[in-house]
């Protein structure tokens, strides 16, 4: 393995350790907006400093002739692509340039986690209310 290949492998491990793909997916799932005029599966989220996108990149025929859609997660800071990850069966990191943009990504991820937690609490409360209501109706039906 050459020096360059080792450096690239180290950079890939750094990105994996920082869970960037997981953060991007959470941000797009929770905070996303539909891309107007694009494929309905594409998502994006933009701040004053970052553009985060999940772009449709065609169909791939994989091992055993399985067919799947390919999406590319990208983050742009200004006009520069600072992160690109091709979502295939194995996943492939294509670009990773560490920088201040990661602080913004972490802030957005924390915001998305907060929204997820609120939704989880709300859903749990609704499930409990439904269970209590169902129990109340059963008691009424059997005079208990």
Task: Count the domains.
Answer: 1
- What percent of residues are in strands? 25-35%
Order of helices and strands: HHEEEEEEH
Q: Specify the number of helices.
A: 3
Number of strands: 6
How is this fold's topology laid out?
Elements: H1 3-17, H2 20-31, E1 33-34, E2 43-46, E3 50-61, E4 67-77, E5 80-87, E6 92-96, H3 101-141
Antiparallel strand pairs: 1-2, 2-3, 3-4, 4-5, 5-6
Task: Quickly describe the structure.
The chain is 47% helix and 29% strand. It has 144 residues and is an alpha+beta fold.
Structural summary, described in words:
This protein is α+β, with helices and mostly antiparallel strands and 144 residues long. It has one domain. The protein has three helices and six strands, in the order H-H-E-E-E-E-E-E-H. It has a six-stranded antiparallel sheet with strand order 1-2-3-4-5-6. Strand 3 and strand 4 form a beta hairpin. Helix 2 crosses helix 3. The longest helix has 41 residues. It is elongated and about 80 Å long. It starts with a helix and ends with a helix. About 6% of the residues have low confidence.
């Amino acid at each position: 393995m050459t020096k360059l290949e080792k450096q690239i492998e180290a950079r890939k491990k750094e990105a994996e350790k920082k869970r960037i793909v997981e953060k991007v997916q959470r941000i797009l799932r929770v905070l996303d907006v539909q891309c107007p005029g694009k494929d309905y599966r594409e998502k994006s989220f933009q701040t004053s400093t970052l553009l985060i996108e999940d772009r449709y990149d065609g169909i791939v025929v994989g091992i055993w002739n399985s067919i799947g859609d390919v999406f590319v997660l990208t983050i742009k800071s200004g006009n520069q692509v600072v992160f690109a990850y091709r979502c295939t069966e194995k996943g492939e990191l294509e670009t990773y340039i560490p920088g201040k943009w990661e602080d913004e990504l972490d802030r957005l991820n924390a915001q998305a986690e907060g929204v997820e937690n609120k939704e989880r609490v709300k859903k749990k409360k609704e499930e409990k209310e439904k269970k209590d209501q169902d129990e109340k109706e059963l008691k009424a039906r059997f005079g208990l």
